[in-house]
Amino acid sequence: MLGDPRVQLITGDDTAACYRRTDDADAERRPDDYRGEPVREAYCWSNLTSGNGARALWLLLVPFMVANLAHWMRPAAPSEHPAQRLYDLLVRILALTLTVLLAAAACEVALDLTAWQCAGTTVCAAGKSWMGFLSPDNSGWWSAPGRRLALASMVPLLVIGFLWWLSRRTWSAYESASPPPRRPGTSRDTPVAERTALSLDGFWYGRRLVARLRAAHTTAGVLTIAAVLRAAGAQADGQAGGDTALAVTGRALTALVILLAAATVVVVWRTARSEAVPDDESDHLVVRALPFASLGALALIVVHTGWARPGSHSHGALPGAAAFGGIAVFQGLLVLALALTAWVLQRSAPEDARTALRGMGGPAVALLACAVGGVLSGGVAQRFADWLDGGATPGQDHAPIPGPPVLLSWQASVIPVLLVVVAIVIVLAAVRVVVVGGRVAKDVPGLYDPREHPDERRTKRIAGTIAGAGLTDSAPVLVAATAAVTLVLGAGAVAGAWLSDRAPGRATEGAPPVVHAAAETAESLGSWLMSAGVILLITMGRRAYRDHSARRTIGILWDVGTFWPRAAHPFAPPCYAERAVPDLTWRMATWTERFDGRLVLSGHSQGSVLAAAAVWQLDPVTRSRVALLTYGSPLERLYGRWFPAFFGPPALTGLHRQMDDWRNLWRFTDPIGGPIRLTCDDGRRIDEGPLRDPLAFGRSLQNPLPAQILGHGDYQADPVFGRVRAELIARLGPDLPGQRPADDCTGGGSADAGTGRGGTDDRTGRHAADDSTDGSADGRPAQGSSGRSSG
Asked: What are phi and psi of 766, to 5 degrees?
């Protein structure tokens, strides 16, 4: 994208770095060679999202990522509104329930289905040599139910341990990038209360917050395992009868689990983001000790559960299976409370008709996170149970094991209904594309030179592209429909499971044949769909682990979800912006300070969001030396609508006022980028467009072949791009910056001179500068920062 195969690293490492063409590496030392020519520099950050094969594992963290997004979707109410803290708290508690659900699902597979049901049943254990030492028929030491459970508890513990390790590993690489120091006289003088959140010094520094949440969620996962073991031990002690020493010890261990659980909730309750300044303090000893205390409690419970209990045996399902229904109900109540809180906040927010779902985006997305978590949990349990029982339907009279909780079967049964609703919405969207495309087709020829002969097929193709790109603005309808149907069907599934205590097929045995057949079909089809979803994720992850191009595609899909800091769930995929934004800010601040330079910061697609976030982090003096050029930008179309508190009209208007200048290019054919839609009181315009796409309509002497419809890419091919960039360069001034004396550089500048940041091009998916990520008059280097597509 720098236009030259010979590039040189200017500053950075193998994770993220700034590059220039080799010929431009020492541009500041040769000012006469760059009179009238910009110096391009690329900031490459692809390794933050798709660098190595371990990124493929992020696919399994989708529910956590979606829950984290809900935190940032709150309405744009004043920061001092009392409901703000309640909204954040509800999201954090809901995220905690997702960790509990994951641990419970792991316990369902390892403890209930394997160690309790199958290993305790001769028919199920027969033919499974790896389970022979657990079978009660051999009367071995491990054949006792409690000892089987104690051994199997290591599996869910390894799952929680892996998530803890993954979170800690990424935490040290992402959340620990420090903001640049401020020179005296250039610090931000604006009061904190009057600044947007993304301009606060500590916004991109979440080291302590993620550490606290990681400790709390790890503790919650370990305590879930302990609670499952305690439920089994309590049942065994009750069967023995009498107030034995084991029963008394068990009650004490139960009290210990409850105490640690309460402490975990308090930590989550009190863990709020501190964004005004970087939070460098260490956590209290109590917080750091919580995971170790929970491990100690689990070790005691493992010993207690495995203690010899003559005559004890496992039958039926493991005690505590109803907890899945309790988790689902609690999550539903949290979502309703979150919706009520969002409604209160929206009433205090500035009026903005384009806010997605009228401020209900956060609750809707939170509900979908719970639904995805339930589907993944149920899918794994259903397929594992089918494998264990040799194909028999769990829960039927002839099945060797009872199988997973009936709630999972009910949840599976509603999936086909939900997919029907989604399919209806998609069909309506397709009809809308046809209708809108027919209307737009009438106007397409008028956009071009009348000497270019009209072509009906080409006209329909251009019109169809425009109509299809417009569907992005209808995304809230799909999200709202899916969330509403999910809430209703989820409540019905819980009610059906609790009232009948049987799977849908058996619960409707006395109903009319049509109802019974529909229930059995939905149950069977839903079970396969749940399992197919899990298998699809695993297959994609396996392919991405081996194939760099597939991994890069996943990185592109992750760009929006992982742009935001981990404020709600510490096991979500890491926030690359907590490394990329400080990188960009450091480079701009130190280069302008060292060379007294001016920059054009250019960003495409998701890179335009990174560019805006980096400009917000600059002090006013540096910000006044930066012009911003965005194209194919989702800043308003996606971020402004779905994250109004951070990218709404007031925030973007403030950014425009504080900069030297800002221009934005957009097309009707772009499904991701769009106009910024700002009307500023100083009269300066931001939006340039809509740009004509394709550039030529028919065949001509200049364009003998049909011109390509560019859509979201190749904005640099449009002549308007070069004109706008030249205008920005001209505004910055004509002089080439000279290097300051070494003793005058007191701001912690880079050792190497820098000119700007580049970004990515969707053609390659690789973060680097393209021809648009530069620009400076008479050799004034320009900044460029762009990113992967947000769609």
From this structure: -105, 135
